[in-house]
Amino acid sequence: MLGYVTLGTNDLERAAVFYDAIAKEMGVGRMMEFDSFIAWGEMGGAPGFAATKPFDGKAATSGNGTMVALEAKDRDHVQRIYDAALANGGSDEGAPGPRGEPDPTGVVFYAAYFRDPDGNKFNAFLMDKVS
To answer: What residue stretches are annotated with the VOC domain (predicted)?
Structure first.
């Protein structure tokens, strides 16, 4: 089971602004904070996420092919997470919308894609009935 995800940052203050906004949309806040590390989520809750300056002192880089997926409650929640990301230093990687074709029961993958200020890729998604 996934416990949490940690992503590197070269500017913890900038990352904090970005992740505070995303965490707020996800209904959580900061759960741990140190000089070089901040974690968001709820102790004992769903998996959380963290931003950290790399322990080895080298520059943080985003992973090619790496992505963190945030499960949304509904399509409006996908939009709000995406909007919060772009309003707080994130960049667009794909506006909210259905991806692919619905499965035989009419369920479609609905998602928005964005990057944090350090280039780490995210999506906000849900499995939803075609409307």
So the answer is: 1-127
